[in-house]
Specification:
The complex is a heterodimer. By secondary structure, chain A is mainly alpha-helical. Helices cover about 40% and strands about 0% of the residues of chain A. Chain A is built from four helices and one strand. Chain B has an eight-stranded mixed beta sheet, with helices on both faces. In chain B, strands 9-2-1-13-20-19 form a six-stranded mixed beta sheet, covered by helices on one side. A three-stranded antiparallel beta sheet of chain B has the order 3-8-4. Classes of the chains: A mainly alpha, B alpha+beta. The interface of A and B includes residues 29, 70 and 83 of A. Chain B: Pfam families: DAO (PF01266). Chain B: InterPro entries: FAD-dep_OxRdtase, FAD/NAD-bd_sf. Chain B: Keywords: Oxidoreductase. Chain B: This is FAD dependent oxidoreductase domain-containing protein.
Amino acid sequence: MCERVTVEDVERAIDMGFRDVESLKRYLRIGMGPCQGRYCVPIVLGILSRKLGVPVEKLSYVAIRPPLEPVPVRLFLRVKKDV
Amino acid sequence: MYDLIIVGGGIIGVSLAFKLAEQGFGKILLVERNYLGSGSTFRCAGGIRASFTSREHIVLMKRSIELWGELKEKLGVKYSRSGYLWLTHREEDLEKIKGYMRIHHMFGLDTRLVGEDFVKEVAPYVDTSKMVGALFDPLAGKASPFDSLYKQFLAAKSLGVEFLVGKEVTRIDIENGAAKGVLIDGEKIPARNVAVTAGAYSVYLLERNGIKIPLTPVPHHAALTEDFGRLFDPLIIDVASGAYAVQTFHGNVLMGVDVEEKPFGELSVKLAFLEKVVSVWSKWLPWLPNVNILRYWPGYYEMTPDHHPIIGPVTPIENLYIATGFSGHGFMMAPVVAEEVASWITSGRPRSQEAGNLVLSRFEEGKTVKELAVIG
């Protein structure tokens, strides 16, 4: 997964008491790399679901922080008005 | 029966749990309705300084900085005394920082004016060509909000503190003028003491008990770039705009600046913020336009009328304590606040006079804390 996190890291963190994907993100940095979690968060949700015995659709997804993908700073220098 | 229930699992609540557990204080339960750190702690910049302009802030923060050092030694918390650097590009701002410096020196803080050579040394990727002057605070620094909360959480847990995460305290159970526990899902959980450390949300929680506290949540904003190698060590401040930027331990640049916001406003994102923050910082960081913004988020500063926190007993109710209203400085103050609230709970009094000045009753008694000087 991004930020060089392994499945074993995720399983160990869950055992330590990090039992939601927001906490796993901040403890392990999953979802904080360039893909912003688009690839790894679904994988982590799968592991969490298996470990906790909770169906994956019952687990909440991480809050999406804008921008949707990394955006160069120079674009924001040209903002004329808010939307 | 718990000896203490802590409502709110941000840095203040978790630090208090750890501090009391370390002292061997009885049975502690911490309740967090969302996830640990989810309120303000994990939205903050992680800057730590004593270079304020009131006795209370300076004295308490000097102690907090000592305790940050101890946390690093004891738990290996990511903390560094890498300083704060105020940058000016206008003559009038230079007078302002000289005024700050005189107050710092009155309290034995070693802030000093520094030149271009020094800035280049501690902040090699800051452009000094427009710089008129700079103030450096060597005692200041930064810590990782994630790391410092999680290490204290794990340490507190191993010392026997219980954590109930994902459950909301709907109200404090108060009978005959004394806190007797909390209510969760209509069920009473009894405790000898209750401490409210719910940040901006403390105002809503206590309202349900008919307790009014002068606390106003105001949205603030922060944005983060992708990560790089060493760019600048200190947290940097643009004096003209009040904007800050800090390079996180991971290498990202985290930036913030004030934009117009309404008290009790909703947390929503604004393009106007991004425009303002990157405009300010492109002046000092000429490479900034060419890097990527990864994330942007809003969070609350919970403001009090005198911009100082509320720490201590919720008089006249017995066995109820509070620590909130940090007005944007809660993360840095957490270690000293934990120590002071622990002292209130275990001995009925604060550890220092300065903390004693920050009790809730000061607002009713007209004893609000005064800034030593209002500059500019």
